[in-house]
Q: What sequence folds into this?
């Protein structure tokens, strides 16, 4: 690695997602304020791509900020003392690597509990896509909320995307298929606002209305959630605060300062018309 090179690498699962794009935008902006440039890589939700990018960026950059899809950061992939910060997702590692993100389990617990309090009992969960198959903390939060209120967990109502089509297409197809077979679905939680738009289209094609027939909550809370009709209740993940903390943590690593291993950024549930 060249000395005094003020470049930070960043890896995200896809640029085709408003939350990850917002993270990259805010992180680049914050880094620029400290005189750093950023190199951005899109792993396309592929774990091998991510590993290749880690090896590619390491000699070019002072450090890497990684929104990882890996289940484990294998030994030898990066030098043991190489500065890396995980954001949003946290793979297992034999070394202590700082992480910045939301408590997704608690966020999903809050969203599911909110719907249960609204009287919903058959909640379809679309937790999103992970490059390497493992249970998402969002699924854990969903199951815990149901169990805590003596509701049976129906595994058939937890459906991951396969990543073979765009998020919009896969979400639409999943929702139309499930609703065609299960008329009791009364709520849906999606992994992003973009997916939520596909849910709205799918339920409309099948003659359902939100929130009268099916209530809807999404993650991200981008400006687009207010433009839908009805407007979409969403979990605001505060990407700018995540970005600010990630940059702060990276700069401390580069300065050999002590950093916290877990840095949780609080979420908030923004109620709109899709759950009223």
A:
């Amino acid at each position: 690695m060249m000395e005094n090179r003020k470049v930070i690498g960043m890896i995200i699962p896809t640029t085709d997602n408003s939350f990850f794009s917002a993270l990259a935008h805010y992180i680049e902006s914050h880094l620029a304020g400290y005189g750093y440039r950023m190199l951005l890589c899109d792993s396309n939700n592929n774990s091998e791509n991510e590993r290749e990018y880690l090896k590619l960026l390491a000699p070019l950059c002072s450090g890497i900020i990684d929104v990882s899809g890996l289940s484990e950061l294998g030994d030898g992939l990066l030098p043991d003392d190489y500065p890396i910060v995980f954001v949003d997702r946290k793979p297992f590692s034999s070394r202590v690597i700082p992480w910045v993100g939301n408590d997704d389990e608690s966020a999903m617990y809050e969203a599911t509990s909110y719907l249960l309090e609204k009287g919903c009992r058959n909640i379809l969960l679309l937790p999103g896509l992970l490059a390497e198959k493992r249970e998402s903390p969002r699924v854990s939060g969903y199951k815990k909320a149901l169990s805590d209120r003596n509701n049976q967990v129906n595994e058939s109502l937890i459906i991951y995307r396969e990543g073979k089509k765009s998020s919009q297409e896969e979400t639409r197809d999943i929702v139309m298929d499930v609703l065609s077979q299960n008329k009791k679905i009364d709520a849906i939680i999606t992994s992003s606002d973009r997916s939520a738009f596909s849910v709205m289209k799918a339920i409309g094609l099948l003659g359902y209305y939100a929130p009268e027939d099916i209530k809807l909550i999404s993650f991200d809370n981008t400006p687009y959630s207010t433009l839908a009709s009805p407007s979409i209740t969403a979990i605001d993940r505060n990407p700018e605060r995540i970005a600010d903390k990630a940059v702060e943590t990276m700069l401390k690593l580069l300065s050999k300062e002590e950093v916290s291993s877990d840095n949780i950024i609080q979420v908030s549930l923004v109620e709109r018309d899709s759950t009223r």
Remarks:
- Residues 176 and 184 are 13 Å apart (CA to CA).
- The mean pLDDT is 94.
